[in-house]
Amino acid sequence: MKKEKMYRYIWQTYLHPGMWKPLGLLLVLILLFGGCANYQQRIKTYISGQEEIVAFPLRQVMLISGRGLKDLNFTITSIEFMDMGGLIQAAGPNAEATLQLRGIDRRMTRLRGEVFTKEGMRDISSEKELFRHISDLLTNSNMQSLKDMTAEMITVHKSPDADSRVVAYLARGVVVSVKGDESGWSNILLMSGATGYVLSTNLNPAPDETRMDIPEM
């Protein structure tokens, strides 16, 4: 009888089918909020890219990020300025990088980035290397000037006027979509979806009639 009671107790306490549902739910909760935290972060990183908040002003982070890309053999193809943010795109021998920056306040900046191989695959190891290098530069190096970083790039203005605000810089050889022309200026579409103006003399026709090529030197 004692054995029967013991077996019945084990069955009712641990093996009864009604116990599996709450035990399964408990296991899922443990995995979601405990043991799988690392995997959650990996999934988030893969979906949204590497992300870091740094205690430096937006302008400084943009300039240092540009230098970091160059140090890792990337060529900057475009730099765009947006309200409280910016976008940097660069091409390397075997990959392309995109960095999005957003100023949280005067001293804090959110930096998000992705690196893709020429085959279109995410290169997370290169992303981590880039972020580590940018972090080291922010901590240990002097900031280069915007003039130095954009010395050989084409200036994009807010309106068809050389005195209007600069909204972006584009590398020579980049292909852009032209929306229209106005008094010697071409209205082009930027990667962020915004538009800007460049001198029409800086553009050459591309095979696609709606697109123009910024000629290389």
Question: Percentage of helical residues?
Answer: 25-40%
User: CATH superfamily membership of the largest domain, which one?
Assistant: Sirohaem synthase, central domain
The backbone outline, from C-alpha atoms, is: globular
Main β-sheet, spatial strand arrangement: 1-5-4-3-2-7-6
Q: What is the CA-based Rg, rounded? A: 26 Å
Detailed description of the structure:
The chain is built from 6 helices and 12 strands. 24% of the residues are buried. Helix content is 37%, strand content 32%. A hairpin with a 3-residue loop joins strand 3 (85-91) and strand 4. It is an alpha+beta fold and 217 residues long. The protein has 3 domains: 2-35, no CATH class; 49-148, Sirohaem synthase, central domain (Double Stranded RNA Binding Domain, 2-Layer Sandwich), CATH 3.30.160.110; 152-213, SH3 Domains (SH3 type barrels, Roll), CATH 2.30.30.40. The chain is globular, with a radius of gyration of 26 Å. Strands 1-5-4-3-2-7-6 form a 7-stranded antiparallel sheet. Strands 10-9-8-12-11 form a 5-stranded antiparallel sheet, with no helix packed on it. The termini are far apart.
